Amino acid sequence: MAQFDVISQEGVQFVKVTLKDDSFRAEAGALSFMTGNIAIRPQLPLVGGMIRSMYSGEAMVRPLYRGTGVVYLESSFNDFYVFDLSGETWILNRGTYWASDDEIHLSYNREPMLASFWTGEGLIDYRTKVSGRGKVVLACPGPVEERTLKNERVTAEGGFVIARTEGVRYGVRRVTTFFRSLLSGEAFVRTYEGTGRVLISSTPLWRAQLAKKLGISIGANDVS
User: Fold this and answer.
1) 0.90 exceeded by the pTM?
2) 131 with 107: CB under 8 angstroms?
3) Rg of the Cα trace of the chain?
4) Alpha-carbon distance 17 to 3, whole Å?
5) Which CATH topology does 3-214 take?
6) Helix, strand, or coil here: 94?
7) Is the pLDDT of residue 102 over 50?
8) In this predicted structure, what is the pLDDT of residue 213?
């Protein structure tokens, strides 16, 4: 399998991928440069996959890199988080997928219609789904904490939960009355409930504000 290393230099991070007759996929446009004997093979999805990618806002083509050498993906003010899949399925927040082993299967998961509507994502909302065995790299707005749920609930504002296992249900609920929500600025929150695991990236507010002023993507598309 490919080796993924997150390198930090001069306030930015980038992902270095080492291949020894291996292959991996990456987000479209993520390549910075590469050395060695490596071929890039863009693969178009089927028609259904194209339609889902349009509704998800994710890249339609995620190229495959195959061969022997080293690939450097673009540097970013994001953090990058590498984790292992051992046969389970994860659903990723929009904009967080960055790279993965070729053995990882990429597909889409449709989120509940009402939850998507009340959180401002529209009636049809697809998210990238990864499954299989191997490593996945996420682009995230800050350090990541993994939590295991045992028939429990996590309540979060915005996109701070960046990924969840398939058994964790995604929903939405009102946190207060309409008039109180006008004063507090909070009307609906996202809920993640059941048994499984979630990845949480609680970005400091100053970092999100700075990135917004500079026009820099910070990974989780809807951190507010």
Assistant:
1) no
2) yes
3) 18
4) 6
5) Double-stranded beta-helix (3.60.160)
6) coil
7) yes
8) 52
